[in-house]
Amino acid sequence: MFQTTYGAFDGNSWERLCQLVFKRKFTDDGYTHIPATPGDYGLEGFTKTTGCGYQCYCPERAYPTKELYEKQRDKITTDLKKLQTNEADLKKVLGVTKLRRWHLVTPIIAHNDLIKHAQTKEAEVRGWNLSILAPDFQVLVHDADHYATEIQLMKLAVGQALDFGGVPTVLPELTDDSEMYEKNIMRKTRKRLASSSVDKLESKVARLYTNTLREFLDHGPHLKRINDTAPTLHSRLARLINGYEADIGETCDTWVGTPQELTEKIRDGLTERIIKELAPAIDLTGAAQIARLIVARWIAVCEVDYD
Fold this sequence. Notes:
Strand order of the largest sheet: 3-4-5-6-7
Shape: elongated
Number of helices: 11
Helix content: 55-70%
CATH class of the largest domain: Alpha Beta
Oligomer: single chain
Strand content: 5-15%
Distance between the termini: 38 Å
Radius of gyration: 26 Å
CATH topology of the largest domain: Restriction Endonuclease
């Protein structure tokens, strides 16, 4: 997934959103969506009255600036070439309309060299003298901010919460060594079981420590499986977890109950929030499992503390 100020997208979800935006924004201009069947013409839609063409591109993940620029540059080059290759078919699609502008619509512009490349390709394409292009044909690059109002309106229309940025959609990387995490888990395990009878304390500590350590070790692979199968859901889940985590410090500092009661409150609260925001994609059983794994992570890295 590629994170933007408007949410996380992959190629398919970005194109779906763009189509909704174009259909709303350019209705009066006769916007027409061109499905990519039987082939991709390098054009996903156009306006009949103004001759503007649109092609969407979203990277599958975050890339270094240079690599992202190269991917966007190659997208422009490849898709403009398709206008020439598919001129005959496009003439039937466009009818009397001649394209005056071709837009690459992408979440961000990686480098100003992309604008330079667009100008270079514009001059080249004009030289092809295609029957489907106007003499003043232009190549433009638009980022998401060109359509900010429409993007937010479309997200509301399909029942999605607006994302104003500020809460990351990936969890922070863990940087300490495993020995430190194991010590934290053991220390907090003993605090959680401080009220247990002496004769059963050590056996309970061993079981709870083992379970918490296993859940901590399992949280990364479990989240990866979610990301591999449902990347958009994973981004929403990570954002939710980060948002919930922001409140934990104050909860721990003001807590007056036992450590175990605090642990249960945090775990139950996270389960409830996951169900509230991500159902039906995640059911109660799945939410409870995720909450157990994440609370184990927080215990290990000291987000949840009892001192």
